[in-house]
Amino acid sequence: MLEGKVQRGAAESTVEVLPKQLKGCANCERRRIRCDRRRPHCAKCDKKGLPCPGYDRRLRWVEGVAARGHLRGRTVPTRPSSEDKAAFREEDSKDIFTERSQLDKRKDFMSSVVVLNAPIAQATRPCKYPDSLTSVFMDYYRLNLAGLMVWMDSDENHYRTQVVPLAANQPAVGFAIMAFAAQHGAMTVPDESVAENARDRCLRLIQTRAQDMTARLIKGDDLNDHGDVVDAEWMLASILIMCNYENARRRLQIADDHRRAARTIVNLFKCQSSINNRDLFAFLRNQLAIDDVLAATTSCDLPLIRNAVTPAPGSEHLLFSRYLTFLHRITLVSADAVDSHPSISHLRSGLTMPLIQSEFEQARGATLMAAGRLGLAGSSMSLDFIRLVEVYHNAGLLYSLRCLDYATEHASERIVAVASLFDQLTGFEDLAAFVQNLAWPTFIAGTECHGDRQRQEIIAGLLMEIHEGTRFSYYLDAVNFLKEFWAGEDNDWRPLARMREAIGQRVLVV
Length: 510
What we know:
Largest sheet: 2 strands, parallel
Helix content: 40-55%
Number of helices: 20
Distance between the termini: 39 Å
Structural class: mainly alpha
Strand content: under 5%
Number of strands: 4
Oligomer: single chain
Mean pLDDT: 80
Low-confidence stretches: 1-21, 60-127
Radius of gyration: 23 Å
């Protein structure tokens, strides 16, 4: 691989040929120590007791045109708009997604994609597979994985009906599906590194398209034609699949970085007229909102929380849309209290317990009405879906009671909600049909049974069933977190979550 740098002007983006020496894992880089790059985990992380994030590609972001040089601190001009706009740019060898506000009193987003810690040669290495093998991956994803990425699987699942067909013309989607299917199925393939190769090629294609967008936006062009939104759709679909791929491998920081990239694509296109009547874009945006809102509930990362994508305006007819919108309002209030240390009673002004109960009741009704429009009434899944709605209703109440410090003041409401949540969680007739949706409410139930050994065993068992049903290994981290929490004296789970996130061991239950 060539050494040195090749820089061009900002209008062309900045490209750097990566050095021969590979970077270590993110933990060692952050700690500024030499990483031995041992696989699967480096020795430094093992010795410190940290989960090694590995040496994989990820999508990240920073602000400005350049991180150094005469363009440092400068922003890229974009065409004025009354709504949020986005642009792409690079920082030396990095294409990075970012968000930036305040440009001539207008909101503009400066964004670009980066691929870190992966040599260019690795991404461009020949990686051809027989058509029969590609078909195996597509079939595996269609049959086993597409249903794990939505609230309720059906013949109308867009991951199956629209995203899979995209792979025929959009290689990045095919590579994303190949990586996820190969990793999840642990299939025997001619190349044992097929998942990693497919991942790298997928992210390289996303990066290349982002560079093209950068150049156009710097010239003042709008990304508002049919081809642009088609590109946005395949980029979003690919990134969301890669988020699941990284989550399944317990690479939570990398998955967070990918979600930041997806978030910026949404912010770039959400106000463009070209997305009108684009069902796939709307679907992918709302899929990102589900992940963003639930991921924020167990995080202390303020930018992640404040910049989370929420359900689109006018999407109240979708399953759990109103629920997620209000849940994120609770998360924002709680995060602001932790950040600025004011009295929570001052910040929660207006969020009284009756209002919280009313909002969640209305959200429950909206979701049940949405389910009715989908023709669930009278189906074999209808009773279990009602249980799912009740599960989220009670989990939302308990999360709000804890995060707004109402748990002691409204102890009776908490007791009732806990009992109801456990009744519903253990009452599913076909747990497998909704197993992909149960991790978050099961985790919340686990945070509310401190000191109750019997309920703790129920929660640990449920999370193990969820892990077995999805094969997503990061759910095991949630079990370990709860066991540590149960063994402690504090009956509030949030301090432990903050402490663990600070050392790179965040809990995620999306």
